[in-house]
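Hello, quick one for you while I still have it in my head. A protein chain has come my way and I'm curious about its shape. Can you walk me through what the C-alpha cells say about the fold? No rush at all, and the record is pasted right below.
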Amino acid sequence: MLYQLINSIITVFIMTFGLITNILILTTVRKMSSMRSSFGIITKNQAVCNILMCFLFLIFVGPLQLSDFKPSYESSRFVGLTSMIIYESAAQLNLINSINRFFAVYTIFFYDRIFSSLNTYFMITIAYVISISICVTFYEILGCYLYFESEYWIFSYPESEHCTHLTWYCDFIFNIVLVVSTLILNLLAAYKARKLHRQITSLDQNMMSYQRQRDLNFIRQSFFQGLSMSVALIFYHITAPLINNKILLFLDASLWAFMLAFEGGIILLSNREIFTAIKQKKTEITSSIMSFGLVTNILVWITARKLNSMRSSFGIITKNQAICNILMCLLFLIFVGPLQFTPLKLPYKASRFVGTVSMIIYEIAAQLNFFNSLNRFCAVYMIFYYDRIFSNFNTYCLRNFAIVVSVAMCVTFYEFFGCYLYFETEFWYFAYPEDEHCDSLTWYCDFVFNIGLVVSTMILNLLAAYKAGKLHRIVSDTTGIRMSKDQKKREINFIRQSFFQGLSMSVALVFYRITAPMITDKILLCLDANLWAFMLAFEGGIILLSNQEMLMAVKKKRHGSLVNFIQTNHSMVYFRTDIVSIRTGNLDYVVSNHGRME
C-alpha cells in the first residue's frame, strides 16, 4: 500500500503539473501573433499531445495505483496503444519542429513556401497517420500488445523473443533515430543562426537582439524537447530491466510519458516569449480558474439539492462544501481579479478583512472534507451505528461546529494575535506579516493543523475504500454474482474523488508554506501562493468527474436502477444495493435499509 500511495502521488503531481503548463501554453500560443507561424502551429499540436498523455495517466494510471482493481487485458491494451500513438506523434512533431528551424536558417528565401500553413498542417497530418499505422501494425496486428502491468503499474510488452526484437527495432531504434536526427538538426540550426546574426549589420541593434533571442528561443526549445525524449527512451529500454525496486522501476519505465508532461515546463523555461506572454495573463488565469470553479460548484450544489440520494448526511456535507467553494470563487473574482489589472491599492484593514473571510472559508472546507471522509469510514466500519452517528440532525451539528471552530480560530489567531492575512498587491496574493511571532503562529495554527486534517482525511478515505472493496468481494464470493462494469467504475470513482480532494488540499498547503518563499518570479509566485484557493475552485470539477450519478444528473440523463438487473433473492438485492450505495456516497440509504436483510 505504501508503494501504491507514493507512486500515485508522484503520478498525480507530475501529470497535474504537465496538464496545467501545457494548457497554459496552448491557450497562450493561440493568442500570440508571433505564434501564428508554422512553428506555432507545430507547438500547439505538441501541447495537445502532451495534454492528452497527462489526461490518460490521471484518469487511468493514477486511480489504479490506489486500488486492487486490475483492468482487463483488452482495456489496458487499448490504453497502451493510445498512449503509444500519442508518444509517436509527439516524437515526430519534435522532428518536424527541428526541420522547421533548420530550413528557417539554411533556406531563408524558400522557407515561407516550404513551411506555409497548408504544408505544415499536411506534415502534421502525415505524422499522425504514420504514428497510428506504426502502432496498430506493430503492437496490435503483429501481437506485441502494450498492456498495463498491474504489479508494477507500468505499461509493458509481452516477454517473448518475437516481441523483444520487434519493439527493439520498431520502438527503440526508430525513435532513437528520430530523436538523434532532431538533436543534430537543432545543433546545426543553432550554429547557422549565430553565424547569420554576426553577418547582419544593417539592422537596428535592438531589432537584431530581439530577432536573435527569438531564434535562439525556438532552437533551445526544440533541442531540450529532443534531449528529454532521448533520455526517456534510454531509461525505458536500457536501465528499466536492471531495476528491482518498485518505485524506481515505475519512475524509470514511466519516464517516456512523464517527459511529455515536463515538455510544458521545458517550453516555458526555454522560450522566454511564451513565458512573458503567460506572465501578462495573470488576471486572465485567476478569472478563468475561479469562473470555472464558480460554474462547476454551482452545478454541484443545484444538482445535489435535487438528487434523492443527496438528501443523506453525505449529501448535506457535499452541498455545504460546494457553498464554501462558491464563496471562495466569488471572493477572488470580485476582489483579487480586479486588483490584478489596476494600480489600486486597498487599505490594509480592508484587505485584512477579506483575508480573514477567505481563511474562514478555507478552514470550513477543510473540516467538511474531514467530516465527509469520517462519514464514509463510519458507513463501512460501523454500519449498524451509522444512522445514529450521522443522522441529519447530527450532520447539521457537525457543520455548525466546523463553522464555529473556523471562525473562532481565524479571528483569534489572525486578528486578536495580530497576524493579519493581508493582500500583497506587489505579488497579488494573501500573506502574513514577516516576523518570528507570526511565522511560529501560522506554522502551527495554519500549516500543521491543516496538514493534520488533510492527512487524516486521506487515511480515512483509503481505509474506507479498502473496506468497501472487501465487503463487495465478500458479497460476490457468497452469491456468485460478478461485479458489473458500472460498479467497477463507481469503486474507482469513489477512490478517485476521495483521494484527489485530499491530495489537492495537501499539495496546496505544501506549495504555500514550503515552495512559495523560494520563488522570485511574480507570476509563478502568484500561482503557487494562491493554489490553496484555486484548489477549492477545482473541487467542483473533481466531484463532477468522480461522481457519475451527479454528472449524469447534470447532463439530464436517467440513471438506471441497479436492482432491475440483479437477479437474486429479495434480501440480497438490498444488501448488494447497499454496497454500491457506499461507493456512490448514498450512505444513509445503507443504514435505513440494513434491517431488510433479516
